[in-house]
Amino acid sequence: LCAALAVREGMEEREALKAITIHGAEILGIADRVGSLAPGKDADLIVVDGPILEVKSRVTRVFINGRQVWRSQEGCP
């Protein structure tokens, strides 16, 4: 939500996504494991049904360490 609001106020979408992914991981000292998709990193990610920074977009799947751990029951093929 904060990233979406930042974009609405003029931040570039790419920078807003970095702020909530790789930059957050760097601040926490865990960027070697998470924060971006790369070989050897944990594949923790979500799939949404619309633009990632749209408030109305909903999470349809959740993956932790590359394994699907949750799937929406509505509208998810």
Widest beta sheet: strand line-up: 1-2-3
**Gross morphology:** flat
Q: Please tell me the overall pLDDT.
A: 93
Count of beta strands: 3
Largest sheet: 3 strands, antiparallel
- Put simply, the count of helices is 3
The ordered string of helix (H) and strand (E) elements is: HHHEEE
The CA-CA distance between the termini, in Å, is 26 Å
Fraction of residues in helix: 25-40%
Count of discrete structural domains = 1
Q: Could you tell me the radius of gyration in angstroms?
A: 14 Å
| Helix/sheet category | alpha+beta
Query: Percent of residues in beta strands?
Result: 15-25%
Which consecutive residue ranges, at least 5 long each, have pLDDT under 50? none
Describe the structure.
This protein is α+β, with helices and mostly antiparallel strands and 77 residues long. The protein has one domain (2-71). It has 3 helices and 3 strands. Strands 1-2-3 form a 3-stranded antiparallel β-sheet, with no helix packed on it. Strand 2 and strand 3 form a beta hairpin. Helix 1 (2-8) packs antiparallel against helix 2. 3% of the residues are buried. The mean pLDDT is 93.
